[in-house]
Amino acid sequence: MSARAFTPQPVPRDTVMQLLEVASRAPSGTNTQPWKVYVLQGAARDSLVEKVCAAHDALRDNPALAAEYREEYDYYPEKWVSPYIDRRRENGWGLYGLLGIGKGDKDKMHAQHQRNYRFFDAPVGLMFTLDRVMGRGSLVDYGMFLQSLMVAARGRGLHTCPQAAWNGFAKIILPHIGAGADELLVCGMSLGYADAADVVNTFHTPRVPAADFTRWVE
Predict the structure, then answer these.
(1) DSSP structure class, residue 83
(2) Which of 86, 128, 155, 203 could pair with 186 as two cysteines, CB 3.0-4.6 Å apart?
(3) What is the pLDDT of residues 99-115, one digit of tens each?
(4) Where does 80-119 have alpha helices with state H?
C-alpha cells in the first residue's frame, strides 16, 4: 500500500543503502541491471521541492506552459478506454472523497496533487533514471526493482509511495540531481515512516479479483 503522509522521523543512510542492496537482486533481462538511483535528503530534497512546486503553481496559472512540462515517455495511454478509465476515476474520487475534496474544488485538488511534489513530507526522496539507449523491456526490469525496494522497505517498518507524477518535471529534476543528458526519468518515490494518524493513509485502492483477469489454457 502506498503511503501519502509521512512523519519527519529520519531514515538512516545505512538503512536506505540496505534497501537498495536488496532491490539490486531484482531480475533483469540478461542481467543488464538498468537502474540508476538518486537519493535526496536535507537541503537537496527541500530545494527540489521548492523548484517543482513553483513550476506546478505556474502551470496552474498558465496552462500554456504544459508544452514545457511533458513526460518523456507515455506512462498513461493517449486515449483512455474502459475498464481502465473507470478504475482511474474510482481511485481518484475515492481518495478525494475520503479527504473531503469535491469535484469543483480545484484549489483543493491542486493542493492535494502538489503533495506529490513535497514527497508527502517524507524525509527521503528517490529519483530513478534509465539510460536512453535502453529498450522498453528495461522498464519491465525497473518495475521489479521498484517493487523489490518497496517490499524491503515494509520489512523494515518503512513505507513508500512510487510516483510517476514527477515525470513531467524532468527538465527541472534531472539537472538538480546531476543526471546526464543520456538519462531518462522513470519515476520518483517517497520513503519514510507513514503517519498513522493521517486519514489519507486509511485509503485502500480496490482490486479486481484474480479470477476476472485470469484465463486457464489447458
Answers:
(1) T
(2) 128
(3) 999 988 999 999 999 99
(4) 84-98, 106-114
Closest CA to 127 of 66, 19, 24, 48: 48
Beta sheet of 159-163, edge-to-edge order = 36-40, 124-131, 183-192, 159-163
131: Cβ contacts below 8 Å, ≥ 6 apart: 34, 36, 182, 183, 184
3-class state of residue 188 by DSSP:
strand
- CB of 3 closer than 8 Å to CB of 159: yes
* This prediction's pTM: 0.95
As a dihedral over the C-alpha atoms of residue 80, residue 86, residue 88, residue 94, rounded to 10 degrees, the angle is: 160
Write out the three cell numbers for 205: 485502492
Backbone angles phi, psi at 128, to 5 degrees: -115, 130
Give the model confidence (pLDDT) of 119-175 as tens digits. Answer: 999 999 999 999 999 999 999 999 999 999 999 999 999 999 999 999 999 999 999
Helix/strand/coil for 43: helix
Could you give the CA distance from residue 7 to residue 78 in angstroms, rounded to a whole number?
A: 36
Residues 6+ apart with CB under 8 A from 157: 193
Beta carbons of 67 and 168 less than 8 angstroms apart:
no
Cβ-Cβ contacts under 8 Å for 154 (sequence gap 6 or more): 160
Q: What are phi and psi of 91, to 5 degrees?
A: -65, -50
Burial class (CB in 10 A: 0-12, 13-18, 19+), 136: exposed
